[in-house]
Amino acid sequence: MDFTELANAYAELEKTSKRLKKTYIVSNILKDTPEKELDKVILLLQGRVFPQSDERELGVASKLVVKAMAIATGHTTPQIEDLWRKKGDLGLVAEQLCEKKKQNTLFSEQLTVAMVFNDLQKVASQEGIGSTDQKVKMISKLLSMATPLEAKYVIRAALQDLRVGIAEGTLRDAIAWAYFKEADPGYDLSNDSITPINRETYNEMIDMIQQALNKTNDFLVVAKAARHGIKELEKIELAVGNPVKVMLAQKVNSVEEAFDVVGRPAALEYKYDGFRMQINKNKNDVVIFTRRLENVTDQFPEVKARVLNCVKADSCILDCEAVGFEPKSGKYTPFQQISQRIKRKYDIEKLAETLPVELNVFDILYLDGENVLSKPFIERRKIIEKIIKEVPKEIVLAKQIITDNDKAASKFFDESVGKGNEGLMFKNLQGVYKPGSRVGYMIKLKSSMDDLDVVIVGAEWGEGKRSGWFTSFTIACRSDDGEFLEIGKVGTGLKEKREEGLSFDEMTDLLKPLIKTQVGRDVTVKPKIVISVKHEEIQKSPSYSSGFALRFPRVTVLRDDRSTDDIISLVELEEQYFKQRKK
Ligand code: AMP
After folding, report:
1. Is 546 left (phi over 0), alpha (psi -120 to 50) or beta?
2. Is the peptide bond before 265 cis (omega within 30 degrees of 0)?
3. pTM for this one?
4. Whose C-alpha lies nearest to ligand 1, atom 1?
5. HEC-encoded secondary structure of 312-334
6. Which residues sit with their C-beta closer than 6 Å to ligand 1?
7. Which CATH number is correct for 452-582, 2.30.29.30, 3.40.50.1220, 3.40.718.10, 2.40.50.140?
């Protein structure tokens, strides 16, 4: 398949913000893609060359791309950087420069999807001395073969910043449109509307694909199955060792409201202030994933040993919260204290002693070859009660009571907060486990004004002594359409030295590879780094795209267990704004 076809689709996608039209464009590309290229096209549509579960990174920095462009187009680095400053996007720069390229490349070989994909994968595998030169060479070779439009997207794919806006929901719907006649939406290009023959069947198909995605967390597996029909899609099952999207909690503000959502009686549990661990056990093998499904097994050898000793099952997938405690007093500590354990690659054994975690198991998804997602929560709890041998401060079940009584619930809430927890979770006794969904089977009730989880979308270089660091950060929430909307700038809370906690220096290291544009001292960055922020108040503000701003924001911790899906939404922000006004 020629890369031009994909480049044209990217260009069409970029031109429209209409979700249905985007779905139409993607579904057409999927229809045209031969089976053997499907894996490449599905990944490239997501702006990736490795599946999410693969830890390899493309690792192409903007500077490297500038060098590659210089070689391929014969322009100097300063010329290219100058143009970059003007256009703010290296993809556009590549497009313009390739237009001016000498005629002789007109007769060169046609770029194919396979060439671009394979070469970008090879770029990622270059390591050690001379690897940068190799990477530059490979990218410049692709550029020298590319038409201007192809060049634009080769560069953006290399930088993993396609800017064509394909949300996960769009790709999901496009799979249905492309492969299921029953889901033919009857898309009308002239007025951008759909009229499925049978709306119910249409919704069922979309839901089926979503469920398959939640179980596998992999568009590729799902698209391949869907291409071979509904029967293949139905066969998709949970597999131990494959991360599954976790079920998310809705938020309420009072005990009564919590019962209203989950019904009475309900199971109430401590809401521990740690981080989520999805534990996959298969005989002697244990794999641990965070909430954003990153593999952190190596960082938690003690947890792995406990699971092997204390979980009486051949194979299972457990949902848990790992919570830190002070080694001497045994008192729970907030997430902030143990956050460094998630990433730390050295001194792991020592860290496990100074920053121990207790594993609180609260759910199960799979047991000995059987998917237990559709069993009611109360039965799933009985399973974990049976298979887990509790050892205090090592592995225990989440502390739980079952009640229909507001007073008992409030008392349990106070008890939980008194022990250093965040509040309570309320669970519907009959609720099934819906991977990836924020359905009302699990409700959170917290004690205080929340820290907000936000994503960094921009930063500003410091001055004088701090000129090598970013010292101020533009933060954003998300809209329902997956856009990022600014809610202010934050600079306080960060430390001067790494030993003291999250430092300017560490943040700079994290953000530098994500830089998209730079004008003067201000940069924009790819939205990837999630932080928690404390604030005094939420105010209305015309200065930021969300329409709100935080008063006196202060960074509390880096949430590298969380992704941009987990940050606060505009709707939640508005809710908090009105709640605080009522008070
Ligand atoms: P939040 O992080 O505020 O969205 O709250 C939901 C998170 O609370 C879950 O993702 C878990 O990591 C955590 N959590 C703590 N205790 C429990 C529990 N008993 N049941 C479910 N989730 C819990």
Report:
1. alpha
2. yes
3. 0.82
4. 249
5. CCCEEEEEEEEEEECCCCCCECC
6. 249, 269-272, 276, 291, 321, 362, 398, 425, 444
7. 2.40.50.140
Identify the three-state secondary structure at position 249: coil
How far is residue 116's CA from residue 150's CA, in Å, rounded to a whole number?
A: 10
Domain ranges (residues) in the chain: 248-446, 452-582
In terms of DSSP bridges, do strands 357-367 and 395-397 run parallel, antiparallel, or are they unpaired?
Answer: parallel
Superfamily grouping for domain 248-446: DNA ligase/mRNA capping enzyme (3.30.470.30)
pLDDT beyond 60 at 105? no
The answer to whether residues 504 and 470 touch, using CB atoms and an 8 Å cutoff, is: yes
Average pLDDT for the chain: 93
- The DSSP output letter for 450 is P
* Spatial contact of 27 and 51, defined as CB atoms under 8 Å apart: no
Which residue is associated with the tokens 């960094």?
456
Distance 183 CA to ligand 1 centre (A): 36
Atom of ligand 1 nearest to the CA of 271: 16
In testing the pocket of ligand 1, which one of 244, 271, 291 has its CB within 8 Å of the most ligand atoms? 271
Contact 366, 316 (CB under 8 A): yes
Contacts of 447 (CB under 8 A, 6+ apart): 413, 417, 422, 423
314-355 tens-digit pLDDT: 999 999 999 999 999 999 999 988 998 998 889 999 999 999
3-state secondary structure of 295: strand
Residue given tokens 């009308």 in the structure block: 188
Interval 498-535: pLDDT, tens: 888 899 999 999 999 888 888 889 999 999 999 999 99
